[in-house]
């Protein structure tokens, strides 16, 4: 399932639910009114209806049961498969800019472009002619690559591609360039029609 950032959302829905949550929090803080404890509300925006369900406490619940096993918060983004903002890439020897890469492609130069992002990212957008090999698969599949071929490696912003280059150099690859800013820079400065995530 795509995240809200990838798939979009109808902004009024989280706004309405947020208002309900804020109201419930205020009721609990001041000790007035009837909070939704033990009740679940189902909101149907198309029919503009609210339905209420009573919910009984489950004594075996891993969070609120008699013997809870979940006692701390999880990493929500990791749990949902949502990538957070990547840290800025550490500069590496042999970088190239998106403008330089585009100029070389326009001149018809044969450049091997290696995309080391995740499969779901590759489905959203890609640099034309790039070869896809996710970073987690690189250690077992690097022999599929030609070690003497000039290669431009990229990811979303340049951090994972820098890791890929460090690994490939350990395996004897020498003609490697990291794409500064990754596909985000490509979308910002070369192809503004490309979807960003």
Protein model, in words:
By secondary structure, the protein is an alpha/beta fold. The protein folds into two domains: 4-79, no CATH class; 95-189, Rhodanese-like domain (Oxidized Rhodanese, domain 1, 3-Layer(aba) Sandwich). It is built from eight helices and seven strands; from the N terminus they run H-H-E-E-H-E-H-E-H-E-H-E-H-E-H. The strands form two sheets. A five-stranded parallel beta sheet has the order 3-7-6-4-5. A two-stranded antiparallel ribbon has the order 1-2. Strand 4, helix 5 and strand 5 (131-132) form a beta-alpha-beta unit. Residues 86-92 have low confidence and may be disordered.
Topology:
Elements: H1 4-7, H2 12-30, E1 39-44, E2 49-54, H3 76-79, E3 95-96, H4 98-106, E4 112-115, H5 119-124, E5 131-132, H6 138-141, E6 151-154, H7 159-170, E7 176-179, H8 182-189
Parallel strand pairs: 3-7, 4-5, 4-6, 6-7
Antiparallel strand pairs: 1-2
